[in-house]
Q: What sequence folds into this?
């Protein structure tokens, strides 16, 4: 009986020894693997220490240029910030910025699409947010040839002159009456761009209807650009995106739905006009896009209706907000 108890104790001791040896061996192997992986991964850039989970979000200053300049004195011209779950690199010197934006622009061309931007531009199917590749090159080529190139802009000179004359005439007719000059300049730009896009004026030509429609359109543009520029928790913590804690996604969906209705109406009217007029040439941007879509364009990266709507949204927001 004593022999049995002694044997059992010896077995338990050996079992404990084997278990501890296995644990220490596992820890040692894990330490070696981590050491090797650390040697392969370059060290992170210097930067201010942040809080757990939040990172440096709470320490950001509204005057970002001054805040970054202060950090550059401490950490150098290139440093990192941790914003929630995102690690950001700040370039704070002309030479480094030139290398990133010019010399190695293709390497740094792609970017994370914010939730509001993805909603506004049809899933990022536009020239602003598309990743660098065949699709982006196709959109860039279409935009330059049909809208932003020198020849395209020169062809719209008569439209610009005509709208400026109409605005001057309207202001002259309102002599001795209060006039919101800024609103009228916006309406003039609105009509110029709408003529360039679809050969038609969005704003009315006179009176309260002109001012009212222009104010409504301007409000929609301001709301969309405001939502895109507003800090969004879902961008800093992608795992929380499904909850839409700030309601930005819901608001953007409503605004994009209104713009999409306008685009659908413009496209339907233009397609009907193209069927009636046949092969008659038209200079506006929308007609050129629809013809490219029908012709197939680049067979590898065809132009789709989603691309057309996304490009129209870019034109509306960039031109009118500027």
A:
């Amino acid at each position: 009986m004593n022999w049995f108890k002694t044997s059992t104790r010896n077995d338990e001791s050996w079992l404990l020894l084997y278990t501890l040896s296995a644990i220490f061996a596992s820890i040692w192997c894990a330490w070696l693997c981590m050491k090797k992986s650390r040697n392969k991964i370059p060290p992170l850039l210097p930067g201010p220490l942040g809080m757990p989970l939040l990172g440096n979000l709470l320490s950001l200053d509204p005057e970002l240029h001054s805040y970054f300049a202060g950090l550059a004195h401490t950490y150098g011209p290139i440093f990192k910030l941790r914003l929630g779950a995102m690690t950001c690199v700040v370039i704070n010197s002309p030479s480094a910025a030139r290398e990133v934006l010019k010399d190695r622009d293709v390497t740094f061309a792609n970017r994370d699409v914010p939730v509001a931007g993805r909603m506004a531009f049809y899933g990022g199917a536009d020239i602003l947010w598309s990743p660098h590749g065949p699709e982006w090159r196709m959109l860039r080529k279409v935009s330059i040839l049909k809208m932003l190139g020198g020849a395209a802009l020169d062809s719209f000179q008569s439209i610009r002159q005509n709208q400026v004359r109409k605005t001057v005439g309207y202001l002259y007719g309102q002599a001795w009456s209060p006039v919101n000059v800024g609103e009228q300049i916006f309406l003039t730009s609105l009509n110029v761009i709408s003529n360039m896009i679809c050969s038609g004026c969005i704003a009315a030509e006179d009176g309260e209807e002109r001012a009212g429609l222009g104010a409504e359109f301007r409000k929609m543009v301001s709301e969309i650009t405001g939502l895109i520029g507003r800090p969004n928790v879902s961008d800093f913590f992608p795992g929380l995106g499904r909850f839409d804690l700030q309601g930005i996604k819901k608001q953007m969906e409503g605004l994009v739905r209104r713009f999409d209705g306008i685009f659908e109406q413009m496209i339907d009217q233009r397609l009907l006009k193209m069927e009636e007029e046949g092969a008659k040439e038209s200079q506006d941007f929308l007609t050129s896009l629809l013809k490219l879509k029908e012709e197939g364009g680049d067979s590898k990266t065809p132009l789709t209706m989603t691309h057309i709507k996304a490009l129209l949204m870019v034109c509306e927001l960039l031109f009118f907000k500027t």
